[in-house]
Amino acid sequence: MIADLMFLPALVPIVLLVFFILPLALLAFVFWIWMLISAIQNKGLTEGEKIAWVLVIALLHVLGAIIYFFVGHPKRKTPLT
Prior knowledge:
It is built from 2 helices and no strands. It is mainly alpha-helical and 81 residues long. The chain has a domain at 31-81. The longest helix has 34 residues, at 8-41.
């Protein structure tokens, strides 16, 4: 009985990977793609601002997407002048 339980510590990293790390990575990737598309289609930004935001998001990955979400994304509501 005890010999059957000796493999359990080896399962902990696999369980963490499958149930926590992979879903979190998938959510981060989806968020990154969403912010990249949002920056490209944002009509509240000039062309130069769009290029800058796309570069920030592309080069900083999830951190760039988070920065865009809080700084550049709300400009979407403002009309282009």
